[in-house]
Design brief:
With 201 residues, this protein is α/β, with parallel strands linked by helices. It contains eight helices and six strands. α2 runs antiparallel to α8 and α4 packs parallel to α6. The radius of gyration is 17 Å and the shape is globular. About 6% of the residues have low confidence.
Amino acid sequence: MTQQRIGILGGAFDPPHNAHVAMAEAALVQFQLDHLHIVPTGDAWHKPRALSSATHRAQMARLAFGHLAGVTINEVELQRQGPSYTIDTLRSLDLQFPGAQFFLFVGEDQGKALATWREIKEIAERAIICVAERDMSDAIKPPVSVVPSHNIPTQALKLPQLPHSATEVRARVAQGQPIDALVPKTVALYIQRHHLYQPSR
């Protein structure tokens, strides 16, 4: 029996945007995944702001990623009480899929901060950590390669240049500016319908 290849892509997804979708698509193809679990963050203890409700974020994730074959929106962290840690999610999936090869996908910023993650050594033992790298072929490349500030083994997930961020999306919504080029159409409609990210009155 062939070993299952299971990817994990976590995030606040508040909201999910086109760069998130591109990351999921690239992960499925480049690492030949059998399944990819999209895991919305639960109690994001490391975030300086309160997240939108779990219900809204899970539904937006379903709208953004639902068209991709092999993708599951996994609400394990949303259902967990207290602070949410990646290692707990990995242990949970390991019980569900014994013997699987896990791939954990993280963004560039998270990749640089891996040394600060809880139980990072065990995470690295349980999963191959894949750090997103945007394609710099059209940009000016730095003269010196950046050396990560940790010795945790990682692999690269190659991504196109998509400089979108959830912060930018929220700011544009608050200012009444269009976001159609930044998020999937279904997500834009959901945000509009539920009046998300409006400035406090």
